[in-house]
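Exercise 7. Given the encoded structure of a 169-residue chain, write a plausible sequence.
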């Protein structure tokens, strides 16, 4: 996987964590790196640069990672709402990961960081892209993790079937 032709945005309010991520990315061959210390700066960087991949922390102030990703996906001023996003956080509970997915994150990388974990997430967002979905309540990559099974019948869900009518006597 070659990263030298991708422009990567790293958004993290912790300078040391941001430096660690950028050093890991450079070691993997990514040389076009843009840094931001919060969600506001991240959105400004998205407008100034043609970003190909975003790595963002979850816990930041004044704009956290969830709000940043939601704005990135839904704002009318967003320049690239379909950009792949990897969220990085030490808060890796199932609830947090589900909330990240629901905010529009492509992949989640738990801290402490490892090179193999970073490579795996980068590979997933670059080689196994998911279709982008836009609904009234969600914008982001298709959230389904399993390959949909082929369906040949007229109704996909039980709620799609006509309901039996009550007979009045």
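Solution.
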């Amino acid at each position: 996987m070659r990263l030298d032709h991708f422009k990567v945005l790293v958004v993290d309010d912790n300078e040391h964590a941001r430096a660690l991520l950028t050093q890991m990315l450079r070691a993997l061959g990514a040389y076009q790196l843009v840094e931001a210390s919060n969600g506001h700066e991240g959105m400004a960087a998205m407008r100034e640069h043609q970003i190909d991949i975003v790595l963002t922390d979850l816990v930041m102030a004044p704009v956290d990672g969830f709000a940043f990703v939601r704005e990135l996906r839904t704002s009318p001023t967003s320049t690239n709402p379909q950009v792949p996003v990897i969220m990085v956080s030490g808060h890796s509970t199932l609830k947090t990961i589900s909330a990240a997915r629901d905010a529009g994150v492509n992949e989640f990388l738990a801290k402490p960081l490892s090179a193999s974990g970073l490579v795996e997430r980068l590979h997933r967002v670059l080689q196994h892209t998911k279709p982008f979905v836009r609904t009234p309540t969600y914008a982001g990559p298709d959230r389904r993790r399993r390959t949909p099974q082929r369906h040949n019948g007229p109704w996909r869900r039980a709620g799609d079937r006509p309901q039996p009518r009550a007979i009045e006597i």
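Remark. The mean pLDDT is 89. Students should compare their own answers with the one above.
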